[in-house]
Give the backbone structure.
Amino acid sequence: MTAFAAPDSAEADDAARRVAEVVSLPGLVAFWDFAKREPSGGRRFVAHVPEGSPTDYPLDADNYALDYWGEGRPATYDDFPMMGRGPFGEAIRIRREEDEHFRPLLLVPRERLHDTPLDIKGADRSVSVVVWAIRESGNHALAGIWHEGTDLRQASTEAIRRVERGQRQYALFAGLSRAGGACGHVSENGASSFTNRYALHKSHTPDAALQVPADSPPETLDAAWHCFAMSFDHERQEIAGWLDGTARDNWLERPERDNLISYARLAYLQGHYARLPGGHPEADPGFPADQHYNPPEDESLSVEILGEEGDERVERRRYPYTEVEVVLRRDADGAFVETGRDLVGLRINPWWYPHGIYEPDDDGSGGPFTIGRVIHSARSIGFTGWIGGVAVFDRALESEEMAALAAIAKRTPVALTSAD
């Protein structure tokens, strides 16, 4: 792409101030700006870390298709073109690779992160992931510990050599259900949710970043930076997606129509049936109790009477995370008693999540931290575009802090190196 001007001391100072804004926030675990590198050796990207950190998390280039299928060539840093410019002075490009045997990503191997501060896991733990990026296409992973597993039976796994179950902990995605949005994902078991084969505890922002070709002119790219983020607050039991510093409220109507969230509706109903005295004819005794999904409904926010005829009434009730239609019938004493219900709306930003973060027993059952892609049975292309910074915090950032980090994306990018 077109070369950017060589950096000057003013730009270097500006980049340093921006880095300091991120590093100074309490709870920082690691921040890769793709300008800081090892002083010698492989000159890999390393993270800004707090004083006393056991490592600065060097990033390896890797082709997971080669690791798991034995196909394709090794990845190198040459497979991640540099912009020479970005919110903090540099950026890497994640390309639309045409070779199905080549799925490059940057990673910290499990053996180098297990039980370090980056390995956020267990009960009573919170996390935030922030990524500054330009989205060209795709809706999949930006960064996190989210090994999707290679044990799903599908056409792409017929010739697989290395089969592993899911090893998911936490990650930030570029939208998933809404491409270009910000989606936070957390898993309590590393594997699936609600009897579906995928993990489904995830939040979705209602808005999305626009698509911009990654080879656009510099002035176009300069105006295209966005701040994607996710947070999990264990005290509030909420996963939130943040786009450009805002976690806009988002509801999904008629969840039964969604291919994946319909499983959350099933988990809601089965959890409700299981708590009814005397049981329910539609209760499934084989549905795993630890996969019931029943957000708190102690007090309704609103009640709308949809219809009433004779001794029967239908109400639509909204709670903090759910919206239900309830059928009621008068009993012998004249009081309305619930005789049926359905989940007709589900809050998907923030998403109620009552669990801890998956805690691998040892480094043999946990995944790596990856940037740009995750290990996935489908070997899909995923997100493409530019990534100019990745930060991880061991707490849920406040809205003011998210807004401050997002503001960095809207400043004029700085250049620390020239690019060609």
Notes: The chain has two domains: 9-249+352-410, 256-349. Residues 145 and 159 are 25 Å apart (CA to CA). Residues 1-6 have pLDDT under 50 and may be disordered. The longest strand covers residues 336-349.
